[in-house]
Structure prediction request, 169 residues.
Amino acid sequence: MEEKKEDLIIAGKIHGTHGLKGFLKIEIFPPNFDLPEVIYIKDKTAEFKPLKVDIYDKRRNLIRFENYTDIEKAKKLKHRYFYVSSGKLPKLEKDQFYEFQLIGLDVIYDNQKIGKITKVDDRLPTVYLIIKCLDGKERHLPLIKEFIKDVDIENGRVIVELPEGWLEL
Prediction:
């Protein structure tokens, strides 16, 4: 079944090769996610290209694709993001969100739009929203209940309570 381009979202990244038989080390972004039989990568023209999964070792995060069963062919897939249909993602609990759902949401403080979420930084123990504010500055806000009062995906906004002095940073 052909997926619609607008339904495809980043689900992980292909890193380097592993061994000589075409296996690749991958990182999957959604937690507890079982990969579908077909994933997509962007080719050099930014078109989505389907890849059929031949073998997937979830425990070791290794994957091999049909027609990429030797190291030389597999090397061509290194360092690329891979995409899946958003409908294939597991349902999340209340108050859990995928990164792609947060990007682009308006940030509302005191009933006023103060900016948009441009990135989510999850490299540290506390996740931060990167917000491009209306004054042109980029500011970071921890994604914790103390500051995030409501995430309204349907209406495209996040209601926040800001720490004192945050807007002056």
Observations:
- The first strand starts at residue 8 and ends at 18.
- The mean pLDDT is 90.
- The CA atoms of residues 71 and 151 lie 44 Å apart.
